[in-house]
Amino acid sequence: MENDIRKIPVHVSIIMDGNGRWAKEKGLSRIYGHREGAESVRASCRLAMESGVKYLSLFAFSEENWGRPKEEVDALMGLMLDSLVNERRMFMDNRIRFRVIGSEQGISGEILDRIASLEAETRDFDAMTLIVFFNYSGKWDIMQAAEKFACRKSAMGSSGTSGDVSDKEIFESCLSTYGIPDPDLLIRTSGEKRLSNFMLWQCAYTEFYFADVFWPDFREKDWALALDSYSNRDRRYGKIK
Ligand code: FPP
């Protein structure tokens, strides 16, 4: 076994895809598929912690998902609200920091309030950070960062510089993910092989892993395969080793 030289990604990010197809295959409603997907979220949290992953991020609701039937959007909002209430104990007991990243536009006050209080309650925990990308898109993130960047640059006056800090560093500090390391490993389930407007900037040097199982079926064995695959990657960041 090569266990002693196994590389563990610091940040694992997941595009949880295939809830609808999982349900359809079983003759169940798409909403049932999302509910089962929430079980995989719970399992993944535990498996990530046990593996020593420090940041687990999940793409739970994209800006584009507003285009789904109202019944499904409502169900996804309901699942988010339920998770915020029901999983609180899990965050507290395991000392997991909770973060949500995305636009607040269109999200109910009740959900926003619960997010704010869970984020505040778990702020000092450091066993792992769970980040839920909710009402997020990579292009939205870059756009809002560009606006902040323009303001900061103009506040810097005519020189437009800030000592030793490069424009790239200033821009990165404007992204919604500031302070969170870029994903080392991005997993997408369901066999689809695309980024779907997820962390477009942040995934510049991320390793991708595509799993051929639907998200509700993504459990322990699949986590182990993904981590094994990552462990065998040779990351060069455009350089030569
Ligand atoms: C993609 O499957 C999944 C989603 C758009 C939603 C993911 C949400 C959850 C797993 C529920 C709970 C999570 C949290 C953190 C509250 P799809 O619907 O696109 O499936 P399909 O491609 O088969 O149609």
UniProtKB/TrEMBL annotation:
Group of enzyme by EC: transferase
Residues that hold substrate according to the record: 18-22, 30, 34, 62-64, 66, 68, 188, 194-196
Record's function text: Catalyzes the condensation of isopentenyl diphosphate (IPP) with allylic pyrophosphates generating different type of terpenoids.
Keyword Transferase: yes
The record's free-text note on cofactor binding: Binds 2 magnesium ions per subunit.
One Pfam family hit: Prenyltransf
Name of the encoding gene: uppS
UniProt GO MF annotations: ditrans,polycis-polyprenyl diphosphate synthase [(2E,6E)-farnesyl diphosphate specific] activity; magnesium ion binding
Record: active site: 17, 65 (proton acceptor)
Subunit-structure text: Homodimer.
Protein EC: 2.5.1.-
Taxonomic classification: Bacteria, Pseudomonadati, Bacteroidota, Bacteroidia, Bacteroidales
Identification of the protein by name: Isoprenyl transferase
Cofactor (UniProt): Mg(2+)
UniProt-annotated binding residues for Mg(2+): 17, 207
Gene Ontology biological process terms from the UniProt entry: polyprenol biosynthetic process
Species of provenance: Candidatus Merdivivens pullistercoris
Highest taxon of the lineage: Bacteria
